[in-house]
Automatic annotation (TrEMBL):
It is found in: Secreted. Its cofactor is Zn(2+). Belongs to the metallophosphoesterase superfamily. Purple acid phosphatase family. This is Calcineurin-like phosphoesterase domain-containing protein. Keywords: Glycoprotein, Iron, Metal-binding, Secreted, Signal, Zinc. The keyword Iron applies. Homodimer. One of its GO terms (cellular component) is extracellular region. Its main location: secreted. GO terms for molecular function: metal ion binding. The keyword Nucleotidyltransferase does not apply. Pfam families: Metallophos (PF00149). Residues 37-310 form the Calcineurin-like phosphoesterase domain.
Length: 401
């Protein structure tokens, strides 16, 4: 609660310009005609120099022919299999120590996303800046690449820690009553690399300035969701009817949050209360900056997605928020021989209204695919639903898709 109070008090010190809510004409993300929005999470590619970069922790028979190109092939296969509307790279996109030239490595690492013509977004991990570019310059290079929606930092923030703090809005279906309204909000943050405080060892964390920005952005988006856009007032009686319902008056568009280093709260789970596997410790910062509490207080975050710990791929629910790992993706990253690399898919689905048309988000589901001959889908689960009583969280993959 102390952090929340500080957020309110200090907002006007750091932010003197109102949070910008983008107009529909500036948006590039939208639910499809089936009422779905599909996100592919790619975490820890650890890309270096391509074909000359060897794989780590693979079976002996794989070593002679395994390289960064296996990572590239896996990204291509996942795009073809899932046909995502957005690809999200959650840090350690390149492995700086082994990347001869950071720009060349990034160009190769993100090439599958660029060639697919699918919008993509990225955040930084703790290894991206360890080559020939600073952390800021790495993010600047990413922002300048084709088809990316990544941003260096929010323009309304005069000061904010890190590089790559931004949000994206996902609008409703064309020709629907939600055509000009964001029904899914995506938040991206720079969780840092390593502590810059001499007395605090270990990894970085999400700082107060970033939490201030997140809280104010979340508040603005909630207000925007509750107010009908002018263009819809005369033409969307279905939306007016929906927004007058009691549940809508208390609602806000669900939010999903992406960054690299897991929060200390990821250590709250054991094998009895998550879906997936936990094969290593939680490598969070050694201090708790309170960002989990900030998200809980915001009231609209349904799930958080990180990377960093390659051998963990679980999702567990804590105080109404699902804390999820993407699972190790890259072949030049540490892994476990015989344990396949993997990627996470998240699908948000809209509610089909009884009188036709589409409503707000009904459910958010997830599964992973492993890099085997069939891109086998595993660990399907419902992360959030409009009415949890109507959803069996043990639902199988056959019902999820």
């Amino acid at each position: 609660m102390a952090i929340a109070n500080t957020v309110v008090l200090l907002y006007f010190i750091i932010f003197s310009v109102p949070v910008r809510v983008l107009a529909a004409s500036q948006q590039q993300l939208r639910f499809d005609g089936k009422g779905e929005f599909r996100i592919l999470q790619v975490s820890d590619m650890h890309y270096a120099d391509g074909k000359s970069t060897p794989c780590e922790d693979v079976l002996p028979q794989q070593f002679p022919t395994c390289s960064d190109l296996n990572t590239t092939a896996f990204v291509h296969r996942m795009i073809l299999a899932e046909k995502p509307h957005l690809i999200v790279f959650t840090g350690d996109n390149i492995f700086g120590f082994d990347a001869t030239d950071a720009e060349t490595s990034m160009n190769a690492a993100f090439a599958p996303a660029i060639s697919s013509n699918i919008p993509w977004a990225a955040v930084l991990g703790n290894h991206d800046q360890e080559s020939t570019l600073s952390r800021e310059d790495v993010m600047k290079h990413i922002v300048a690449m084709k088809h990316t929606l990544s941003q260096l930092n929010p323009p309304e923030a005069h000061f904010i820690d890190g590089f790559g703090n931004y949000n994206l809005e996902v609008l409703g279906i064309e020709n629907s009553s939600f055509v000009n309204k964001s029904v899914l909000n995506l938040y991206f943050l720079d969780s840092g690399d390593y502590s810059t405080v001499p007395s605090i060892p270990g990894y970085g964390w999400i700082k107060l300035s970033q939490q201030l920005w997140f809280q104010q952005t979340s508040m603005k988006l909630r207000r925007s969701y509750m107010n009908q856009p002018e263009a819809q007032k005369a033409s969307a009686p279905g939306l007016r009817s929906y927004m007058n319902q009691p549940e809508a008056q208390k609602a806000s568009a669900p939010g999903l949050v992406y960054f690299h280093i897991p929060l200390p709260e990821y250590a709250s789970f054991d094998s009895s209360n998550f879906t997936g596997v936990k094969q290593e410790g939680i490598s969070s910062a050694s201090v708790n900056s309170g960002f989990f509490t900030t998200m809980v207080e915001a009231g609209n975050v349904k799930a958080v997605f990180t990377g960093h710990d390659h051998l963990n791929d679980f999702c567990g629910e804590l105080t109404g928020i699902q804390l999820c790992y993407g699972g190790g993706f890259g072949y030049h990253a540490y892994g476990k021989a015989g344990w396949a690399r993997r990627a996470r898919v998240v699908v948000a689905s809209l509610e089909k209204m009884k009188k036709g048309g589409w409503g707000a988000i009904k459910s958010i589901k997830t599964w992973k695919r492993i890099d085997d001959d069939h891109l086998t889908a595993i660990d399907g689960q419902v992360l959030w639903s409009k009415s949890s009583a109507d959803v069996d969280n043990s639902v199988g993959l056959g019902m999820l898709k």
